[in-house]
């Protein structure tokens, strides 16, 4: 018998964590942060040194007491990718389990950078497993990392092969046929697993209600090209903000910025962490073409120098795509740095607003500040890294799971996934709409 506990991410977007018990072994999939709550308690959008107790009290991390009866059975912790809503809780909670961490090279590098930079210690050994490789955890469990596309490198679908069948954890993913870095999804492996028989599919439901196929990252790349190379920006500042973890997007920004014959500077701690991880794993080589400035005091000095040299000579890539008050862009807009905007300066938001009340308010605030100073705003130069409904349909058709467990969202999102499953002929007893803390048994 296999038991699955929805620890976090089944009643909200964020703080993802699922525990799967196979015999006497428990595998934990993701330990993430609830970013809105985390920013409230830490006053920072990046990982900082803070107590696990404070994070638990503020609902910034999963409620791990729901698997307290399994704590001594946790053998392995597997983050599916390097986004903080999936990996950000590991520095705070992983040490409560006598378990190794198994991750792809990029995700491992990001995690190690976080631990080193913030002087955080965990007792867990971090093991690295390549994409499309297999790890024999025990006689009961074999782990396979299946290549999938998402908005950060080396994202994976985790396959837990057991005697009772295979559990697939597809959280997050999209089917990008034209990725700008990395390979296409491993459709053939998914098809093979479907032919052999998948016991359960745990799947990202964020855009299950969006009736489309999610556009490729190559579309976002073209959107960036149109703005950076197709819009008159002579004698104007160019400032771009995006997700620090989105290495493909950053590579596109650097490429087009170089064609403008401007010097490219990354400003912000999180950008430095992810860029370093990309360099260590051979995914990108930013240090050849980009100056990277981490800390606020150095950023302040660098921006002062940029103003003296002429801001029209630079492309500045900065943190602050959600308008976070601790970010570089916010401090620039709020005159906390020696940087002056002038009419016509270009601000490119290569992202979308993550729809929480805090993010919406922060973005409205920063956009007002920038508008007052005469900047031109280019919003939503972006395509999502999450699958939409027609991608979900294709995944279900490929792997043909016996059971479907919608994840990564509250009921209004997960219920859309359930509706799709019913539409495809699944019976209600095989579709499990779970909430945080619930546990089911599968045979």
- From the spread of the alpha carbons, the general shape counts as globular
Number of helices: 14
Q: Mind telling me the CATH superfamily name of the largest domain?
A: Ribonuclease Z/Hydroxyacylglutathione hydrolase-like
Distance between the amino and carboxyl termini: 5 Å
Low-confidence stretches: none
- By secondary-structure content and strand pairing, the structural class works out as alpha/beta
Residue share in β-strands: 15-25%
Assign a percent range to the helix content: 25-40%
- In this structure, how is the largest beta sheet organized? 7 strands, mixed
The largest beta-sheet arranges its strands as 6-5-4-3-2-1-19
Q: Tell me the number of strands.
A: 19
Please give the radius of gyration in angstroms: 22 Å
CATH class of the largest domain: Alpha Beta
Structurally, the number of domains stands at: 2
Quick check: average pLDDT?
A: 94
CATH T-level topology of the largest domain: Metallo-beta-lactamase, Chain A
From the 3D coordinates, which CATH architecture of the largest domain would you assign? 4-Layer Sandwich
Write the layout of secondary structure elements.
Elements: E1 2-8, E2 17-22, E3 25-29, H1 35-42, H2 52-57, E4 74-78, H3 84-87, H4 90-93, E5 100-103, H5 105-117, E6 126-128, E7 134-136, E8 142-147, E9 156-162, E10 165-170, H6 187-196, E11 198-204, H7 217-230, E12 238-242, H8 247-259, E13 263-267, H9 269-280, E14 290-293, H10 296-309, E15 314-318, H11 328-333, E16 346-350, H12 357-372, E17 376-378, H13 389-399, E18 401-407, H14 411-423, E19 439-442
Parallel strand pairs: 3-4, 4-5, 5-6, 10-11, 11-18, 12-15, 12-16, 13-14, 13-15, 16-17
Antiparallel strand pairs: 1-2, 1-19, 2-3, 7-8, 8-9, 9-10
């Amino acid at each position: 018998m296999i038991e699955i506990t929805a620890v976090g991410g089944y009643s909200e977007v964020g703080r993802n964590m699922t525990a799967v018990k196979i015999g006497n072994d428990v595998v934990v999939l993701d330990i993430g942060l609830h970013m809105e709550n985390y920013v409230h308690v830490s006053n920072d959008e990046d990982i900082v040194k803070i107590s696990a107790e404070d994070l638990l009290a503020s609902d910034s991390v999963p409620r791990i007491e729901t698997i307290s009866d399994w704590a001594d059975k946790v053998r392995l912790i597997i983050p599916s990718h390097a986004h903080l809503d999936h990996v950000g809780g590991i520095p705070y909670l992983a040490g409560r389990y006598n378990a190794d961490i198994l991750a792809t090279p990029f995700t491992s590098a990001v995690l190690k950078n976080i631990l080193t930079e913030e002087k955080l210690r965990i007792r867990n050994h971090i093991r690295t497993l390549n994409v499309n490789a297999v790890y024999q955890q025990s006689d009961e469990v074999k782990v396979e990392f299946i290549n999938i596309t998402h908005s950060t490198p080396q994202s994976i679908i985790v396959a837990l092969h057991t005697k009772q069948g295979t559990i697939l954890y597809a959280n997050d993913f999209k089917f990008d046929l034209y990725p700008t870095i990395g390979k296409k999804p491993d459709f053939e492996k998914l098809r093979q697993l479907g032919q052999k028989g998948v016991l359960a599919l745990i799947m990202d439901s964020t855009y299950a209600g969006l009736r489309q196929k999610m556009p490729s990252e190559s579309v976002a790349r073209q959107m960036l090209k149109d703005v950076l190379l197709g819009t008159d920006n002579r004698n104007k500042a160019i400032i771009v903000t995006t997700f620090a973890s989105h290495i493909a997007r950053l590579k596109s920004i650097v490429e087009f910025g170089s064609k403008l014959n401007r010097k490219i500077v990354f400003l912000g701690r999180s950008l430095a962490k992810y860029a370093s991880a990309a360099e260590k794993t051979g995914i990108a080589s930013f240090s050849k073409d980009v100056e990277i400035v981490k800390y606020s005091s150095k950023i302040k000095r660098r921006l002062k120098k940029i103003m003296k040299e002429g801001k029209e000579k630079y492309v500045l890539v900065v943190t602050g795509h959600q308008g976070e008050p601790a970010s570089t862009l916010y401090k620039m807009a709020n005159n906390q740095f020696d940087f002056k905007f002038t009419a016509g300066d270009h601000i490119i938001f290569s992202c979308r607003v993550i729809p929480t009340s805090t993010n919406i308010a922060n973005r409205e605030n920063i956009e007002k500040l920038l508008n007052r100073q005469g900047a031109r705003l280019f919003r939503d130069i972006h395509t999502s890294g999450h699958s939409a409904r027609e991608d979900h349909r294709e995944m279900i058709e490929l792997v043909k799971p016996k059971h479907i467990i919608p994840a990564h969202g509250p009921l209004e999102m997960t219920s859309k996934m359930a509706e799709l499953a019913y539409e495809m002929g699944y019976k209600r007893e095989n579709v499990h709409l779970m909430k945080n803390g619930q546990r089911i048994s599968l045979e």
